[in-house]
Amino acid sequence: MSAVGGSGARLVLLGAPGVGKGTQAAEISRRTGLPHISTGDLLRAAIRDGSPLGRRVAAIVERGELVPDGLVAEVMEERLARPDAADGFLLDGFPRTVAQADLLDSILAKRGQALDRVIGIEVPEAEIVDRLAGRRSCGNCGATYHVRYNRPKVDGVCDRCGSELRQRPDDVEAAIAQRLKAYREQTAPLVARYRKTGRLVEIDGRGTPDEVFGRIAAVVTGLTA
Question: What is the pTM (predicted TM-score) of this model?
Fold first, then answer.
């Protein structure tokens, strides 16, 4: 598998829920040293903390909807201002809308910066539903499994810590349908926006994580060498 270059790039990963953005972002971050900035992780932390923002986010996620721009803008701007993101970063889950993309452009413009590349991962919707509906996660340590592709040693029990595995409320089929509908309506225009600027590279997200990473590495290497 191709090696990915060093730090210094400003990258965004795009794709519908379930295409593997988190998995690929973590691997790219490990190989390049770019900080992996996941909106989902930041918002889930708020939910676990039970803050007023977290309670609002929890209600939205349980309905299978995307979190509105106003609830993510402040936390993301603060995150991008941290020293580790000064020379490059990898965004996973932000921007999700054209309005959020405008916000990101504004944040970067203040620093005389711009995005280098937007990597769009594409997977057929039928496969996305299969991936998400079978996903199970540990609420204690965060480990994830799948009922067919990545089973725990004991059904319903986390291999790492022995806690109960659960299906997230947004991974039931009705919620998945709502999430995909929201993606098509809100994020598809964002894909078109980045395609028009010439920054978008579309990647086939089918296959093993290593196969998908190999396709991404060919793009990222030229940016970060």
Answer: 0.76
